[in-house]
Amino acid sequence: MPTLPLNLRRAATFLGVFLLIMVVIEFNTRLEELNRLNDQREEVRAVATQAIQTQMALKTQVAYAGSTAAVEEWARTEGHYVREGDQPVIPVGQPGSAPVIVATPMPLPTPMQNWEVWWKLFFGK
Question: Which helix (H) or strand (E) holds 55?
Answer without folding.
Answer: helix 8-65
